[in-house]
């Protein structure tokens, strides 16, 4: 029996360390990509750093629980060890809820980087509000599960029924996972991209589905603990699923950002020929930018009135229209004839207008950030 207990405790410890290293590396690569390479770090990166710190606290608290009897049968653990283990469990639950909340917020903030449609952005902000309120509830109820607080590990006092609290929070956690998973799919499915590329993009955004599966498995382990007479033994599985859920959430949240870094140093692994991507029809509002054209095709206006001293020359590039006011110096009697003998001298005033559809912007941004 002792060997079985030792092996289960060691499994909790080793799994925690391995997954923590993977999560930490994912965040490091993400920050290198965003801060060092792309130079476009944002609030979503700050949120994932907070999530990593909370994840570290969760796994440290869980590993300390192993030292106090987690993974052993209750008959092998002293009352003092049980009390110390429950104190660490209290810390671990708080860290777990903070980590989950900030991971979800980071993912949705990343959606806001790439989606420009008013409707999808409204849904994103509404989901952030829902996740924030839910996360605040989980942290507060974790802190004051018992009154006084130390009754959680010392016993006595007045406590919220643990079974109700655990299952309510776990079920709502799965619900928000599903919402975040489904949120970008309508926009992604509407993009006019090659089927293979569209499926690839949807797969990247659907990586959270694995985290959702882990949440369901954790919910089952919670049920086992809630009906168990050997909590120190059975709670080991819940601990493992808890930090697998958090660490895989961090890894999945970082994958779209680290793709740019992989493409930079290993271009053949994730090569995509963007030059052959089909364009999208103009929908929604236009966005005006001043930009330089690398390739333009001049279009000469032949219906120019000879009395005018200025005409407008239009250069048309891919999705870009450049308008220039130019002065015309006529040669002989050919002025205004539109026969190709006019000399156009560009004045100092130039107006560059780029008209980009809302859907086109989303396509470009999604491809850039994933």
TrEMBL record:
Its main location: membrane. Residues 350-370 are annotated as: Disordered. The chain crosses the membrane at residues 12-33, 45-69, 89-112, 124-153, 165-187, 199-220, 240-262. One of its GO terms (cellular component) is membrane. Pfam families: Fung_rhodopsin. InterPro entries: Rhodopsin_dom_fungi, SAT4-like. It is found in: Membrane. It is a multi-pass membrane protein. Residues 29-264 form the Rhodopsin domain. Keywords: Membrane, Transmembrane, Transmembrane helix. Residues 352-370 have a biased composition (Basic and acidic residues). Belongs to the SAT4 family. This is Rhodopsin domain-containing protein. It comes from Cadophora malorum.
């Amino acid at each position: 029996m002792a060997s079985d207990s030792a092996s289960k405790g060691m499994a909790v410890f080793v799994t925690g360390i391995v997954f923590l290293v993977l999560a930490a590396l994912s965040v490091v690569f993400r920050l290198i990509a965003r801060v060092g390479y792309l130079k476009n770090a944002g609030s979503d990166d700050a949120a994932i750093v907070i999530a990593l710190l909370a994840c570290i606290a969760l796994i440290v608290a869980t590993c300390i629980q192993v030292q106090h009897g987690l993974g052993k049968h209750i008959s092998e653990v002293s009352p003092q060890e049980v009390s110390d283990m429950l104190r660490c469990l209290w810390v671990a639950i708080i860290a777990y809820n903070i980590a989950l909340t900030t991971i979800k917020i980071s993912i949705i903030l990343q959606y806001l980087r790439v989606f420009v449609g008013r409707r999808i952005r409204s849904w994103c902000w509404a989901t952030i509000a829902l996740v924030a309120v839910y996360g605040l509830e989980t942290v507060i109820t974790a802190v004051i599960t018992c009154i006084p607080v130390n009754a959680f590990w010392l016993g006595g006092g007045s406590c919220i029924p643990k079974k109700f609290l655990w299952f309510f929070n776990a079920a709502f956690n799965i619900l928000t996972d599903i919402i975040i998973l489904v949120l970008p799919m309508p926009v992604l499915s509407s993009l006019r991209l090659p089927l293979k590329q569209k499926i690839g993009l949807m797969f990247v955004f659907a990586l959270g589905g694995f985290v959702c599966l882990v949440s369901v498995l954790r919910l089952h382990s919670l049920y086992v603990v809630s009906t168990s007479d050997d909590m120190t033994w059975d709670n080991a599985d819940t601990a493992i699923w808890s930090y697998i859920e958090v660490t895989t959430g961090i890894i999945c949240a970082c994958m779209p950002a680290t793709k740019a870094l992989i493409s930079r140093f290993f271009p053949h692994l994730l090569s995509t020929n963007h030059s052959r991507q089909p364009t999208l029809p103009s929908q929604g509002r236009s966005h005006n930018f001043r930009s330089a054209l690398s390739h333009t095709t001049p279009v000469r206006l032949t219906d120019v009135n000879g009395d005018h001293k200025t005409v407008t020359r239009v250069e048309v590039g891919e999705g870009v229209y450049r308008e220039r006011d130019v002065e015309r110096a006529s040669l002989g009697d050919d002025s205004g004839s539109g026969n190709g003998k006019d000399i156009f001298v560009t004045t100092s005033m130039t107006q560059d207008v780029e008209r980009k559809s809302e859907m086109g912007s989303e396509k470009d941004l999604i491809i850039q950030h994933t």
